Backbone:
């Protein structure tokens, strides 16, 4: 896949509804190669649950059917997108593309897990809408991106309100997910807290994990998607310079994977004596798994052992050109020779200009867009630059420019690098196919690294930087009270208040009952759109809360009935 770093989001979402007010959602993350399916009953004519999901995923594309099947009293998801998400690209596909039968077959084929593990065999008829949305989403992605999603390559999850509670959405990734969809399963929460207990009592384990996690590439989860997609056709037109960027990304992904697998023995050494269930399970399922050693051995047969992941553009380009061992492909060796010759010629040209034009501080930087260019400090320029220098631009205290000779060498250098990328990809074809067979193991590795990073570098680090008595382990109960003694704001901690995501809380004591929903209302203003006074707006919002509340819900309100008389407000508060 192409690099999506420049995109605001990497999600493509399919939406469909039926006349019974059920909504099916398929959220396809192109960056991490994961598919999240949800189906729920929309309890509000304002599509509040759907808005929450769209806020959470922040998609770049929304795929919807024609707006002919909206339930009575509902505007329909297509009009909803037009009205509230006009800045997001909307794609309308024929109703026939939303085929739940084809969707079930597709999900079974592309899921890294077995269908029985997903519960697909059991819940197929129940979740037919989200499978229909998945069918359209996958069809659009393959057609738009010109790829085929390989079998057993995607992480597929069925999301609902079973294990998480929904609150308002804001930003990204695992920490964001846990903040926006806090866990409801007490056993899982306690497993995380047990892990935190061990990290806080074992400094060697805590600092060891912190250091080891730094050795893993930050893009581990994004590497996976490059093994889940492959071009539909390999033709002479595809093997051109325009395709070099895709080849470069694939080569970079293999190098990143090699770097991650090289760090696994260090992680195994740190977790060997861990006692908590969570860390012990990571050690058994990842560190002791022979599959990773097998993948690393296969990579070592093709990739040079000295190749490392680099962030400096030209160093990264050189590493990618020389990723494959010498002697495997004669044409690749010739392209490398040409790449080295042109790179050397460019640096020789810079040395020549330093001497000819008396510019001792002339530098030759490199960036991906324009290749090599000259950078000359203002203080070294006496009068005007020689006419040989073109494309002159001021940049801070330097002048950036080029010459016709440099431009010619740049073209040859880029062409040689592109040839290296394409030949390297052909050499990696068998290796990448072998990696695709074990992509479920790579998904597990990425999930484990994300979880460890969150627990160690977010939760444990926050606790370790505070005084011993400022953070305590809360108690979670099914039906107990919600009680917090001397609680503090996690950022503005100076004021104690008596008034969660598997982490210590900033309080003296806390016992917390797991809730499925949090309801609140804020503000005291008129609503001109609905011709409602402040009191009427307050009562409408309160009525909505009372209609949707359950025994496990938490309602937070302040001064209910403030817009009416004291006696009426007192009576309303007691009646609720």
Residues:
């Amino acid at each position: 896949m192409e690099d999506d770093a420049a995109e605001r989001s990497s999600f493509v979402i399919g939406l469909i509804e039926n006349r019974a007010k059920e909504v099916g959602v398929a959220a396809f993350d192109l960056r991490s190669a994961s598919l999240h399916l949800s189906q729920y009953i929309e309890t509000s004519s304002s599509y509040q649950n759907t808005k929450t999901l769209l806020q959470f995923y922040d998609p770049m594309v929304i795929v919807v059917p024609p707006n002919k099947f909206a339930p009575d009293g509902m505007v329909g998801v297509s009009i909803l997108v037009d009205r509230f998400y006009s800045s997001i690209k909307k794609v309308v596909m024929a109703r026939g593309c939303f085929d739940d039968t084809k969707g079930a077959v597709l999900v079974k084929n592309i899921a890294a897990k077995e269908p029985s593990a997903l519960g697909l065999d059991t819940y197929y008829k129940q979740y037919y809408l989200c499978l229909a949305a998945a069918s359209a989403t996958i069809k659009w992605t393959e057609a738009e991106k010109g790829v085929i999603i390989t079998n057993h390559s995607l992480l597929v999850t069925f999301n609902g309100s079973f294990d998480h509670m929904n609150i308002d959405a804001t930003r990204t990734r695992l920490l964001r997910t846990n903040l926006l969809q806090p866990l409801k399963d007490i056993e899982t929460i306690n497993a995380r807290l047990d892990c935190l207990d061990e990290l806080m009592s074992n400094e060697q384990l805590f600092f060891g994990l912190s250091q080891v996690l730094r050795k893993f590439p930050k893009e581990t989860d994004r590497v996976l998607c490059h093994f889940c997609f492959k071009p539909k056709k390999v033709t002479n037109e595809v093997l051109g310079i325009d395709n070099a960027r895709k080849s470069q990304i694939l080569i970079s992904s293999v190098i990143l994977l090699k770097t991650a697998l090289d760090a696994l023995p260090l992680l195994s050494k740190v977790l060997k004596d861990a006692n908590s269930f969570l860390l012990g399970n990571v050690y058994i399922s990842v560190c002791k798994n022979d599959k990773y050693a097998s993948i690393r051995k296969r990579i070592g047969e093709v990739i040079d052992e000295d190749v490392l992941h680099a962030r400096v553009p030209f160093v990264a380009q050189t590493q990618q050109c020389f990723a494959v061992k010498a002697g495997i492909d004669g044409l690749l060796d010739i392209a490398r020779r040409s790449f080295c010759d042109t790179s050397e010629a460019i640096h020789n040209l810079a040395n020549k200009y330093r001497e000819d034009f008396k510019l001792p501080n002339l530098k030759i930087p490199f960036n991906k867009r324009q290749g090599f260019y000259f950078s000359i400090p203002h203080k070294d320029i006496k009068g005007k630059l020689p006419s040989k220098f073109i494309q002159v631009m001021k940049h801070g205290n330097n002048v950036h420019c080029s010459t016709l000779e440099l431009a010619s060498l740049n073209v040859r250098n880029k062409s040689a690098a592109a040839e290296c990328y394409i030949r390297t990809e052909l050499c990696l074809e068998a290796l990448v196919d072998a990696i695709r067979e074990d992509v479920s193991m790579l998904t597990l590795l990425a999930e484990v690294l994300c979880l460890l990073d969150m627990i160690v570098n977010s939760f444990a680090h926050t606790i370790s930087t505070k005084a011993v008595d400022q953070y305590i382990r809360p108690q979670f109960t099914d039906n107990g009270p919600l009680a917090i003694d001397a609680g503090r704001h996690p950022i503005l901690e100076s004021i104690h208040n008596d008034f969660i995501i598997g982490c210590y809380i900033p309080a003296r004591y806390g016992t917390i009952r797991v809730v499925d929903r949090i309801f609140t209302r804020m503000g005291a203003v008129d609503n001109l759109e609905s011709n409602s006074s402040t009191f009427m707006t307050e009562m409408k919002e309160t009525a909505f809360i009372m209609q949707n509340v359950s025994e496990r819900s938490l309602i937070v309100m302040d001064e209910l009935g403030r817009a009416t008389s004291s006696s009426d407000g007192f009576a309303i508060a007691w009646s609720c």
